[in-house]
Amino acid sequence: MLLERFPRVSLSHAPTPLEPLDQLRKALGGPRLWIKRDDCTGLAQGGNKARKLEFLLADALAKGCDTLITPGAVQSNHVRMTAAAAARFGMKCHAVLERRVVDTDADYEENGNILLDELFGCTRSYVPGGSDVGAECARIAEDFRAKGLKPYVIPGGGSNPVGALGYVACALELIGQAKQLGINVTRLVHGTGSSGTQAGLVAGLAAVKSPIEVFGISVRHPREKQEAMVFDLACRTADHLGMSGAVERKHVFADDGYVGPGYGLPTPGMVDALKMVARTEGILLDPVYSGKAMAGLIDHIRKGTFRNDEDIVFLHTGGSTALFGYKNLFLKA
Ligand SMILES: *Cc1c(COP(=O)(O)O)cnc(C)c1O
Asked: Model pTM?
């Protein structure tokens, strides 16, 4: 109902599974744990961007565009999936890669997502960390227009009201799955960055008045900035849905206690969480997003933040492709 009137292409293998994390729970104690496998969305090794790209690509195609331009960090999952989506629809793709992470090695520069960007035929240009990537994308779009192309600029992480519809869809999907399993999900925990995932979830849950609380774990910004970004985009997404006013400020929470030294920079908690989930559940997380989000979930379980009778869902947003850009971190540790 909520989403039917929006143009959408098919890119993701949804519904993604909702599975118990019984071995991890056994190791940790505490609340019942579930994992929503958005690492299995299917597009080019999966991840959360596939859901956003279903709406973004449809918008680009409706506007007659033939070229996607998008920014990201060098090891961007969003760029990798955008490049794959462009290939699927016969479009060109150009990425503006921001050197946001310093002191990197050859694996970070050439392996993981970058290797796959190359295979998908995505052209790339680099800018220093802290650059105005939006302005740089606009400049490249002008160049492309002068050459006769029809560019469509996708913002970082695909995070605008069109892309966030993908996570409105995920929220509705999760509510249906929880009902089928007969569980009462109290909280949904995930890593929050460019904010479209959390904004879409918050808007979708608010639109249907679901009591599920979204528990964001910031991977980049301090709490105040992250929550302001999420709230702003969640409100604009609700407007886009025709549900203005559905989102309240109290629906937005982002813990910034697990960022460590900065975006894309490892923390001991992330390394421990990533190994723990690999060794108890056989599931791969990633060093930049889901690993830090899981470090936060584990720490909150240990601190007793949650009641034992809660059903908590960890949204696995993907990203394990980036592990190959961080090889030395795990081999040396
Ligand atoms: C982009 C990304 C996120 C964060 O999602 P946002 O919508 O940008 O907040 C989380 N996990 C992974 C693996 C990602 O690639």
From this structure: 0.98
Task: Answer whether 323's CB lies under 8 Å from 277's CB.
Answer: no
Distance, CA 264 to ligand 1 centroid (Å)?
A: 12
Question: pLDDT truncated to tens, each residue of the chain (333 aa)?
Answer: 799 999 999 999 999 999 999 999 999 999 999 999 999 999 999 999 999 999 999 999 999 999 999 999 999 999 999 999 999 999 999 999 999 988 889 999 999 999 999 999 999 999 999 999 999 999 999 999 999 999 999 999 999 999 999 999 999 999 999 999 999 999 999 999 999 999 999 999 999 999 999 999 999 999 999 999 999 999 999 999 999 999 999 999 999 999 999 999 999 999 999 999 999 999 999 999 999 999 999 999 999 999 999 999 999 999 999 999 999 999 875
Could you give the CA distance from residue 223 to residue 244 in angstroms, rounded to a whole number?
24
Distance 320 CA to ligand 1 centre (A): 12
Alpha-carbon distance of 199 to 101, in angstroms, equals 25
Which residues are catalytically annotated?
76
> Which amino acid, one-letter code, is at 51?
R
